[in-house]
Amino acid sequence: MTVPAGTGMAKDILSNLRPAAGARKKPKRIGRGQGSGHGGTSTRGHKGAGSRSGSGYRSWFEGGQMPLSRRLPKRGFHSPFRVTYQVVNLSDLERLATQGKLQNGVVTPDALAKLGAIAKATALVKILGNGELKTKLDVSAHAFSGSAAKKIETAGGTVQRITSTPKE
Question: Is the pLDDT of residue 10 over 70?
């Protein structure tokens, strides 16, 4: 494309694009002689661990000062025996059943993972009683809420608890 002279469009051609003035700086060249301004100690200073090769402090190191993580008060309690479940509501199971995605009305953690109802088939699954269930389902899971088990059985389905612990 040829651009008429004096239109001011010449700078918009793709082959003429350049970074803005002052946007690109030359890198600091360390250890390239005294004339560079970064020779001698090469910006590392004199003596100490920081001047030597292989040195490096952890990002949270505070020079021997009591670290922030130890200065702050600790709050609360975190149980080392906490069990976390992936939860599925009865409303989700009913939706999957009405869409015809559950084969033969059998619900297992593997089937739920393939359908995207839970993230991992290997983690613990708990069925909660939120919603109504009209479809007869045979549900296998690691835990059930009381209302969920009751609703599944009143709909004609069965509840089976998985006792083996999954491998994560």
Answer: no
